[in-house]
Design a protein that fits this description.
The chain has 230 residues and is of the alpha/beta class. It has two domains: 124 residues, Response regulator (Rossmann fold); 95 residues, Orthogonal Bundle (Arc Repressor Mutant, subunit A). It is 40% helix and 23% strand. It contains eight helices and 14 strands. The strands form four sheets. The chain has a five-stranded parallel β-sheet, with helices on both faces. Strands 8-9-10-11 form a four-stranded antiparallel β-sheet, with helices on one face. A three-stranded antiparallel β-sheet has the order 12-14-13. Strand 13 and strand 14 form a beta hairpin. Helix 6 packs across helix 7 and helix 6 crosses helix 8. The longest helix has 16 residues. The protein is elongated, with a radius of gyration of 19 Å. 29% of the residues are buried.
């Protein structure tokens, strides 16, 4: 029942793209493959992936140049990006990392190592997408089956309530507006009303009441919501 992080693979070599798709899907990622920068731009403009695996040389341009454009855009500034390229010279690695890459992997590569590097990048940049078990106020939130437990009390959370609680737990003591939560929990470019957030927060509060933990989910008047660290 884990929520699959989406990896955008921008790679023009079909055999490498297929190897990536196989390696990533078997460990729980959802893979979107684009062969060129034009298609990749169009996809990112519609909806943000959770991480990008980006080749340097593509049929219609250099991936590193697009990466710099992404870093200059407020919407995509913090999008995790891993360069995957045959360019193995130190100068190229420095250019890629200084251009904004979170990591740099050279071809030929180990699929297992790449998976580990993707998980490391997500753990730093988007911890809500990494499988974890959370404990707070005597409660345990389990990523495998979306259950919240405390002693003999067990509740299976709906998909949205689970995503919302996990996001807040991984970003505790930070206040988020309704608009931010819509983008970060529901998904970028999902067009639903802001009051939808309030409805799901109310549902989550009712669940937390059963566990004596509702006080940790705070309403910041005029701003949004925050999870107070235990």
């Amino acid at each position: 029942m884990n929520i699959q992080p989406v990896v955008l693979v921008v790679e023009d070599e079909e055999d490498i793209a297929e190897l990536l798709r196989f390696a990533l899907t078997r460990v729980g990622f959802s893979v979107v493959w684009m062969k060129n920068l034009s298609d990749a731009r169009h996809h990112v403009n519609k909806i943000l992936p959770d991480v990008v695996v980006l080749d340097w040389m593509l049929p219609d341009g250099e991936g590193v140049l697009w990466m710099r454009q992404l870093r200059d855009n407020q919407r995509t500034r913090h999008l995790p990006i891993i360069m995957l390229t045959a360019r193995a010279q130190e100068a190229d690695k420095l250019k890629g990392l200084e251009g904004g890459a979170d990591d740099y992997v050279t071809k030929p590569f180990s699929p297992k190592e790449l998976v580990a590097r993707i998980n490391n990048v997500l753990r730093r940049a988007a911890p809500q997408h990494v499988a974890q078990v959370f404990e707070f106020a005597g409660c345990t939130l389990n990523d495998d089956d979306h259950t919240l437990t405390k002693g003999s009390v067990v509740e299976t959370l709906g998909k949205t309530e689970f995503k919302l609680l996990k996001f807040l737990l991984t970003h505790h003591n930070k206040t988020f507006s309704r608009t931010q939560l819509l983008d970060l929990v529901w998904g970028d470019h999902v067009y639903i009303e802001e009051r939808t957030v309030d409805v799901h927060v109310l549902r989550l509060r009712k669940i937390l009441q059963r566990f004596g933990a509702e006080s940790y989910l705070e309403t910041i008047r005029g701003v949004g919501y925050r999870w107070r660290a235990v």
